[in-house]
Design goal:
4 helices, two-stranded antiparallel ribbon, mainly alpha, 2 domains, single chain
Length: 105
């Protein structure tokens, strides 16, 4: 989901610098920060995902390519055993409400 925030310039610069240093999109950093804040709030139904499941998700997501129509696909297809191991790791975690992956950065 797209949204707009007005953030202090200094905060935005720090966030952009951290995302760049980690080699990932700013939106991923912001989503992770919001997720952590929600989990820390103690809100019922909000689960903390293990670092292993988050890493498995990131490994799997990194393999995807985006088609011109905006859909995502794994170019290595079903012959990639690492793909299925990552899916098994992700499925083993108690995930909260489904996150919709759009493939857009």
């Amino acid at each position: 989901m797209k949204t707009t925030f007005d953030l202090p310039d200094a905060l935005m610069r720090r966030a952009k610098a951290l995302a760049a240093a980690q080699g990932r999109p700013l939106r991923d950093l912001v989503a992770e920060a919001i997720d952590e804040k929600l989990v820390d709030s103690g809100e019922p139904g909000v689960h903390r995902h293990s670092s292993a499941s988050r890493e498995a998700w990131e490994r799997w997501k990194a393999r995807l390519e985006v088609s011109p129509d905006g859909s995502s696909f794994n170019p290595q297809g079903i012959v990639d055993e690492a793909f299925f191991r990552s899916l098994d790791e992700i499925r083993a975690e108690p995930w909260g409400p489904q996150e919709r992956f759009t493939g857009a950065d």
